[in-house]
Amino acid sequence: MAPADPNSTGSTGGGATRDQASVKVPSKDPKKKDEKKDEDLSEEDLALKQQLELYVERVQDSDPGLQKTALESMRNLAGEIAQEYAKRQTEEAIIDDLMELVGQIVAFHMKHNAEPEAVDLLMEVEDLDLLVEHVDNANYKRTCLYLTSSAKYLPGPDDMLVLDIAYTIYMKFEEFPRALQIALYLDNMQYVKQVFTSCNDPQKKRQFCFILARHGITFELDEDMCSEDDEREGLQEIINNIKVNEGYLTLARDIEVMEPKSPEDIYKAHLLDGRASGGGSVDSARQNLAATFVNAFVNAGFGQDKLMTVPSEASSSGSSTSWLFKNKEHGKASAAASLGMILLWDVDSGLAQLDKYFHSTDMHVIAGALLGVGIVNCGIKNECDPALALLSEYVDKEDSSIRIGAIMGLGLAYAGSQDEQIRSKLTPILGDAKASLDVIAFTAISLGLVYVGSCNEDVAQAIIFALMDRSESELGEPLTRLLPLGLGLLYLGKQESVEATAEVSKTFDEKIRKYCDMTLLSCAYAGTGNVLKVQHFLGQCAQHLEKGETYQGPAVLGIAMVAMAEELGVEMAIRSLEHLLQYGEQNIRRAVPLALGLLCISNPKVNVMDTLSRLSHDADTEVAMAAIVSLGLIGAGTNNARIAGMLRNLSSYYYKDASLLFCVRIAQGLVHLGKGLLTLAPYHSERFLLSPTALAGLVTLLHACLDMKAIILGKYHYVLYFLVLAMQPRMLMTVDENLKPLSVPVRVGQAVDVVGQAGRPKTITGFQTHSTPVLLSAGDRAELATEKYVPLSPILEGFVILKENPEYREDH
C-alpha cells in the first residue's frame, strides 16, 4: 500500500527524510502501479483513483488551506466508497479495486490523526483486519479507545469482532493491562493466558492478578504463565484475593473510620421530633433484626462492632451471645451470620470467631453460623477450601434451616468458581422428593451462583427437572420464582446461548412459563445494552393483565439489567421506567423502583432520588417498600447526606408500621455500607468490565424483593446477604513493588469522555488532589499527580502497583 511507506522511512531517518519521502511517494508509487492496473479499472474507478491521487498531493502541499480541502474531499470519497461497496455486495461484483482505494485512504487517515474515520470506513467495508497494519506507536491508544467505545453500540457479532481487533493491537504494542481487560470483557480465558505468557515482567503480572481478583473470577496459573513456583504461588494468592482485607483496613485507618458504629449512630433518632423516638425504646424482635442488618452492613469487613464482637467483661458467655438471643427464631440465623459480614474477607479470624456457634443447640444459630462461613469466604479463594470442608457435612441434615444455611453459604463462598465438588453435592438435592420447597429454591440459586455465566448443561437440566416436578400449589409460592432465576444465572450475559433452554421453558406449566421466559432473557442479555431486548421487555410491560400474573416483574428488572451497560442506555431506561409508573398496572409499579435501584446502584442521581422519594410515600405499601430499599441501593456506600435525611424522615413517618420501618432501617444500613468505603456497583475499570458474580448477587436480591412480604419480611430475610457478592472497596490503593502501601499524590475528578477528540484532552475535570489511599465515587477517575512513579495499570482503581520512573529528576 503506497502511503504506508513513509512511516517506515520516517522512523529511522529523522524528520527531514520523512517529509521528502512523503512528498515523493504519491507521485512515484501509484504511477508504477497504474501502468499495470489501468486496463482493469472501469472509467468510473479510474476517475476516483485520479481524484484520490490529487487529494493526496494536495494534502501534502505546504499550503494549509489546500490540506483542509483535501481532507474534506477525502471524507466524501470514503462515503462514496462505502455506498459503492454496499451496492457491489448486493450484486456480488468484485471489490478488489475498491479495497485498494480503501487501503490508501486508511493509511492517509491514520497518518493525519483521523483514526475514527479510518475505523468507520473499515467497518463499512467489513475489513477491520487492515487496521492492525496501519496503527503505530503514536495512534494505537486512540484507535483502540474508539474501537472499545464503539463496540457497545454495534450489533452482535460485530461488537466481538471489533474488540478482537482492539485486543490484537494492544498485544502488538505490549499494552498488556488493556489487552487483559478486553480478554475479560470477551470472557475469553485463552486470551487471558496469552497475556500472561506474552509478558515477562513479574511486576506487571502482579498487576494483572489484581485486575483478575477485582473482576472476581477463578483462574489457575500454570507452568507456561509463570515458570517459577514461588513466584507463581505469590501471584495465585493475589488472584485469590487474599490481599483485599489488608488493603481495606489500611484504607480505613488512613481515613480514620476504624471506630465501630452502632445502629443508633446510623439512625440518628435525636435529630427527629419527639414522636418517633419515643416508640424506639421498645425492644421488638423486628427492630432488633433490623439493627442486626444495619450493624452488619455498616461495620462490614472492619472486624469489630458494638453488638456481635464485643469482648465480654464478666464471663465467657457474655454480651455477644446476648445480642444473638434478642432475636427470635429465624432472626437468630441472620444475627449469627452477621458476624461473618463483620469479619468479611478475614478468613482465619472469621472462622475462629464463628466456631463457637457451631456448638449451639439452637438450629437457627447453627444455620446462621454456616451462612456466616460462606459470607467470610465470599470472593476469597483458599487453597485448603475451609468453606467446603465445614459446610458439606451439613448440606444433607434433616433440619431445613440448617440445610439452607449450608447451601447458601456454599453458593456465596464459591460463586463463579464452577467447582465440580459443589455440583455433585448440590445437584442431588434438586431431585430429592423429600426436600422442602425453600431448600430446593436456595439450592437452585446457589448452583446458579457457582456456575454463573457458564451455560453448564448438567446444572441447567437438574434445575429444569426440579421445576417440572413442582406441584400446582407449589408453583404459586413466591419462593418457586427463585428456580427460574437460578437457571437464568447460568446464562448471565451469554446472549444466544440461552435459546435452547428458553425453548424448553415454553413446555412448563402456564403458571410459570412466561415468568421463566422473562427471567431467562433478562439474565442472558444482562449488561449487553441490546436495544431489541429492551423493546421486547417494554412490549411485555405494556399488556394489562389479570390479577395474579407475575411475569411483568422480571420484565421490568430486565429493562434495567440490559440497559445498564452504558450511560446513554441508563438515561433512556430511566425515562421509559417513568412512563411505566404512569401507565403500568400495580405489579409493574412494584418492580419499577427496584429497576431504578439497579440502574443507579451506588450512584445517587438526583432525578432518580426524587422519583424514589415520591414513591416511598405511595399508597401501595409494596411500592413504598421497594422504593425505600432502592433508596438504600442507589446510595449504597456513599454516605449520601440527602438520602440519609430522607430515610430519617421516613423512619418517623412510618414509625407505627413495623414492615415499612424495617425497610427504612435496611436502607439506612445500606447507605452507610462499610462506613462509606464500599460500593455495590458491579462495574469496574472505568465502567468497562462487569463482574458477573456481583451482578448475580444483586439480581438475586432484587428478584427476592419482587415479593417483599413473603421473602424479606417473612423468614427469609437472610437473602439480604446476597449483596455481599457485590461489595467491593471503592478505593485506589497504590503499592510499591513489594506490595507495601505507598502514599503518592493523585488527582481525583469526574471522568470525561475523550473518545475521538483531537490532541491530548484532559481526561478528568473538577479534580482535587489527595494522597493515596483515596475513595473513588461513581464516575470518578484518578490520575497520578507526580512524575516520580509510573503506574503499571492505565486505570487507577483498586490496587495499583507503582514503579519508580527511571527518567525522573528532582528539580533542585
UniProtKB/TrEMBL annotation:
Residues 1-10 have a biased composition (Polar residues). InterPro entries: 26S_Psome_Rpn1 (IPR016643), ARM-like (IPR011989), ARM-type_fold (IPR016024), Proteasome/cyclosome_rpt (IPR002015), RPN1_C (IPR041433), RPN1_N (IPR040892). Pfam families: PC_rep, RPN1_C, RPN1_RPN2_N. Residues 73-271 form the RPN1 N-terminal domain. Keywords: Proteasome, Repeat, Ubl conjugation. One of its GO terms (cellular component) is proteasome regulatory particle, base subcomplex. GO terms for molecular function: enzyme regulator activity. One of its GO terms (biological process) is protein catabolic process. Residues 26-39 have a biased composition (Basic and acidic residues). Residues 1-44 are annotated as: Disordered. Residues 755-808 form the 26S proteasome non-ATPase regulatory subunit RPN1 C-terminal domain. Belongs to the proteasome subunit S2 family. Acts as a regulatory subunit of the 26 proteasome which is involved in the ATP-dependent degradation of ubiquitinated proteins. PANTHER family: 26S PROTEASOME NON-ATPASE REGULATORY SUBUNIT, 26S PROTEASOME NON-ATPASE REGULATORY SUBUNIT 2. Component of the 19S regulatory particle (RP/PA700) base subcomplex of the 26S proteasome. The 26S proteasome is composed of a core protease (CP), known as the 20S proteasome, capped at one or both ends by the 19S regulatory particle (RP/PA700). The RP/PA700 complex is composed of at least 17 different subunits in two subcomplexes, the base and the lid, which form the portions proximal and distal to the 20S proteolytic core, respectively. This is 26S proteasome non-ATPase regulatory subunit 2 homolog. The lineage of its organism: Eukaryota, Viridiplantae, Streptophyta, Embryophyta, Tracheophyta.
